[in-house]
């Protein structure tokens, strides 16, 4: 048994195809198949059921893969501990970020990060919150940028921002003439919403009063993009709620309405597995992000945190 074989079975469990797993491991498919078979022979068990449409771990295979992920994580930690002691920011940074943050936050910090630390190989993926948390646990991501709290004991949260929600109101709507809004003003049947699966959608509905949820709808359109929601308001009617980072360039727009104090906010954190050892990298990433956003968005302000679970 060797680490390479463990990497192969983890890749096979992740991708459920020999060809794709081999591509991700930068080896040929016969090489990967042969090494997996050798490990099965050494252990005396079948780790994967080979099927026409793919492969699946057996019951014992799933347990072996889970332990293999832990072994590979700890091996990676050994290398990273040495890098930390040397004061180096090198290697891979696999970063997952939710879609309602990515378009507005990634352009602010990504280039600065790689320019300051050219030996750091950064890969960013837009993923929904539940996918990010699972990939952090499976050692498929190093850091997540998402909305917290998660209340997951396997993960550590480092708060970065408290981003206010603002109402984006069409001209002619009764709310348009108000200087500010409050949760009691919101009726879900008039609001453009993101699709199911987005934590931002759940937070928006949590801001509404319970009575507003029950109002009948005559039509609906649910989008996967905050920018689409804003366009719907601009060209149609009703309103939506948006995070402040998405409207930094249009804060003087009369369509934007702040909430009365305390403003509802979403807490944005850097999230890592509890075994994560590259603390200087986490600190650097947090500092760069904070240097690129208005100071009022820093965590520990006076907003009312809206939960999404």
From TrEMBL:
InterPro entries, per database record: LysR_HTH_N, LysR_subst-bd, WH-like_DNA-bd_sf, WH_DNA-bd_sf
Record-given protein name: HTH lysR-type domain-containing protein
Recorded family membership: Belongs to the LysR transcriptional regulatory family.
The UniProt record lists the keyword Ion transport: no
DNA-binding as UniProt keyword: yes
Assigned keywords, A-Z: Activator, DNA-binding, Transcription, Transcription regulation
GO MF annotation: an example: DNA-binding transcription factor activity
GO cellular component, one term: protein-DNA complex
Domain HTH lysR-type, residue spans: 1-58
């Amino acid at each position: 048994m060797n680490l390479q074989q463990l990497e192969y079975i983890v890749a096979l469990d992740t991708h459920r195809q020999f060809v794709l797993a081999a591509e991700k491991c930068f080896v040929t498919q016969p090489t990967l198949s042969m090494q997996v078979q050798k490990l099965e022979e050494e252990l005396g068990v079948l780790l994967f059921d080979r099927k026409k449409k793919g492969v699946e771990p057996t019951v014992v295979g799933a347990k072996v893969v889970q332990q293999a992920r832990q072994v590979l994580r700890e091996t990676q930690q050994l290398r990273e501990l040495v890098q930390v002691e040397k004061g180096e920011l090198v290697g891979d940074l696999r970063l997952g970020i939710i879609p309602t943050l990515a378009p507005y936050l990634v352009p602010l910090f990504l280039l600065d990060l790689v320019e300051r630390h050219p030996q750091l190989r950064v890969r960013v993926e837009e993923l929904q919150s539940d996918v990010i948390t699972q990939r952090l646990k499976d050692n498929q991501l190093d850091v997540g940028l998402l909305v917290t709290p998660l209340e997951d004991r396997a993960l550590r949260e480092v708060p970065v921002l408290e981003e206010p929600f603002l109402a984006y109101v069409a001209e002619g709507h009764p709310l348009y003439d108000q200087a500010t809004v409050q949760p009691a003003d919101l009726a879900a049947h008039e609001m453009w919403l993101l699709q199911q699966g987005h934590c931002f959608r759940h937070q928006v509905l949590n801001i509404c009063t319970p009575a507003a949820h029950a109002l009948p709808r005559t039509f609906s359109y649910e989008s996967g993009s905050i920018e689409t929601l804003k366009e719907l308001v601009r060209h149609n009617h009703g309103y939506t709620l948006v995070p402040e980072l998405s409207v930094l360039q249009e804060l003087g727009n009369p369509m934007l309405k702040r909430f009365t104090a305390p403003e509802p906010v979403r807490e944005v954190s850097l999230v890592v597995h509890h075994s994560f050892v590259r603390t200087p990298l986490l600190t650097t990433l947090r500092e760069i992000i904070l240097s690129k956003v208005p100071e009022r968005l820093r965590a520990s302000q006076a907003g009312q945190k809206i939960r999404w679970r």
